[in-house]
Design brief:
single chain; 149 residues; alpha/beta; Conserved hypothetical protein from pyrococcus furiosus pfu- 392566-001, ParB domain; two-stranded antiparallel ribbon; 7 strands
């Protein structure tokens, strides 16, 4: 599979592993209960985004969908729909951060670690925040500043 190719698939849950540097924690509670109930009633509405692990025999690394995967594991599901997309470590780090920043309940510590991880990945690619849409270090998003994070 070429680096730019994306492919839809159904993958066994046992072959899916969390992204190693994921700054977000999967928490039990009412939100997880509601997610598991929704998946049980309607199935997975949005496939997980995964990338092949360096050792293909090890399976796939989850880039987006850690909470959905945890809910599926709780429900003892055997397989889940995914989109397989090869990507580098830096591309995966940026994708993990970008896929989760819209969530409502993110701890400030998770958000700070996520932004740090994204900035490091961008710097490895020779980019700065200003080159990807941020005006300055002080303006991280439309409603947050670097000083807040």
């Amino acid at each position: 599979m070429k680096k730019t190719e994306r492919k839809a698939a159904v993958i066994p849950v046992k072959d899916l592993h969390p992204f190693g540097g994921n700054p977000y924690k999967v928490r039990e509670g009412e939100e997880m209960d509601a997610l598991a109930e929704s998946i049980q009633e309607r199935g997975i509405l949005a496939p997980l985004i995964v990338r092949p692990m360096a050792d293909a025999a090890m399976g796939y690394e989850v880039i987006s969908g850690h909470r959905r995967l945890a809910a599926c594991q709780r429900l003892d599901m055997e397989s889940v729909p995914v989109i397989v997309q090869p990507m580098s470590d830096d591309e995966a780090a940026i994708a993990v951060v970008d896929a989760n920043l819209q969530r409502e309940h993110i701890l400030p510590s998770e958000k700070a670690f996520a932004y740090k991880m994204k900035m490091e990945a961008l710097s490895h690619q020779g980019q700065t925040c200003g080159q990807v849409g941020h005006k300055s270090r002080d303006t991280i998003s439309e409603d947050e500043s670097g000083r807040q994070v």
